[in-house]
Specification:
By secondary structure, the protein is an all-alpha fold. The protein is 82% helix and 0% strand. The protein is built from 31 helices and no strands.
Length: 693
Amino acid sequence: MNLQNVLLIILGISGVLLVVLLVLLNIVQRKLKGTQYQEQRRLKALLPTRTKEKRWLEQAHKTYPVLDELPLVKKLLHRMRSRLTLVHAGNEIMIRSRAAALTLMIVACILIISLSSFLWTSSWVSRATIMLVSVYLGGVLSDLFIGRLVKQMLYDQSSMILDIRHEYHQTHMVQVSLENSAERSKPMVAVHARQIAGILAAVDPEDELQKYYEIAPNRYMKQLAGVSYKIGEYGDADIHKGERSIYLSMLGNIREEIHMDINRRERIDRLLYGIVFVAISPVFMLDPIRNWAEGMFPIVSNYYNSAWGLYSLILLYITFIISFIALRILKGVDEDTQSIKDEGKWLKRILKRKWIFKLVDRITPSEHEPLHFKVAGKLKDANSGLSQHAFFLQKTLAALVIFMLIISLQFSIHANIKHNILYPNKQIITGGNQTESQKMLSEERYAFEQTLIGELVAKDITPDQMLPYIQEKAENKSFLQNNLNQNAYAAQLMNRVEQYHEEYYKWYELLLAFGLALAGFYLPDAYLIIRTQLRKWEMQNEVDGFNTLSMMLSQFPNISVYEMIEWLHRYSYIFERQLLRCMLDYEAGGWSAIENLKEDARFVPLERLADRLQVAADLIPVKKAFDDMDAERAFAMDQRKEHYEKVISRKSTLGKMFGFLPMQATFTLYLLLPFVYMAFQQLGDLTVVTGKM
């Protein structure tokens, strides 16, 4: 059978298969046109379909038990779970699914970036830096994801309150309005509307309300639950007689607060969008910049491996750390109450050891010393949960860590410089526009000098013996120029050996380490100052919310001052501790308790509100104490918007400054200074040449 017959058989079989396929296609098309198939497609279209996000969450939910068994991942998973519990309170399946999904995303980000660092660079220092940046980036991604969920919940809450208003206009019944609005709201907030409606229908609604306060996602849902309970329990104003509905007006005020919060978050996110990734990018540019500079201008490697170059690299890393921490703080809108509660837990565990507590107690000021009151004021202003012993332990550990780190870096710098003296950049000698024969001679010279200097260092030859030894070794070497000045060449090699011996730990370096450790001792104080300043920016926002809440509560005829303070405590996250203390002291005397609140808070706008509460506690009814706030509301809202503009503008300015600081520092310390060094080096060589002419 020849080739032509084989091809004919193949073509025949292919033709038969094609005919069979066409017949099958015709049969299938006829069946698809049947009414039974069309009906099946219509019924299938009516069934709920799972989106990609739902399928992904279902898969993530299955991995939750596995992640909960892994040592380090378990801690991250529980951290994500605690943050998501505030958003999806009561929905255990959604909490587990999103916590697992977010944990998987962060772990994948860390692993991908860490593994890519091995392909990106060969330096272990750069690899470790990129790995740490991947951990930081994982935290940034979690903040972005949870921040997006929080904003979505605020939008859904605003829509839900609008639905409640619409239903209340028709029914004038709080429970029915909540239940009906839950049917029209998004699932994320509908569950809260049903819970609040369930509180009103409970046997002990007050107890159920207190339980809901513990799982409410934010202050606005707490306000909605409290207002709904008040109206459901004591009734609304008589609308039929032309009175203004308390419930509707309070719903409007809550919705207005939500809108202001949404605008604030949106503006901060928009102004600082992507600034974190701009700050992170220079970390990945360090090795490419150095490789390019050393490839184009080999002499700059002497700068990179010198003490000045290595100290400038350390300064660059410090700049990175400061910028990353500052951006993480500035992008936050509210304080993380959970992190404040968990603050200093590991310090407390360390202090449980008696010998450590005794050592820390020696440097902690006593209760009668002025420093004790000064430190207590700093901790209170920064809303820190640390005790004074924990704070001074933190300062001591910071100083010790910085001291040990600086000592290690100094020894590492000396070792790096010694290594560079023995093994300088090969391109300095072999690079340039050399022919192949010249390049081979240069490589021989490089190997000779490297071996010779190693011998001189190992044998520890005296300077008097070094000159004849070098001249003897360099005699009749083909790779050395005939007109080379033997004495100058030997002096050059002797200078390198002398530089090697000069690289030892010096006394002023130890003094520098002590100075930096002392600065590290006061580093926690600087952090408290920054926290206090940022807290002052947010204080006015919270007190403005207090004023709006007090104006709403004063409309209830049977409201008491203690109840108002209790509401303010639930609303607060900055003045939470001060208001809690005021509540505990209130039974001993309302006037004195509020007076202590003013002393603890030490914030003038809150003191003005406290003055109204004091008057309402002993002298006049609550409604009269706050009757002028409604008239001043328009002016107060304008002032509040102006304050928001100032805070957002400051955060935007600082965010852009810290965002672009790493890039500016990288180009200055890692690119500009090496070229300045190279210019001065070549200028010095040119001066020597012209001096010999």
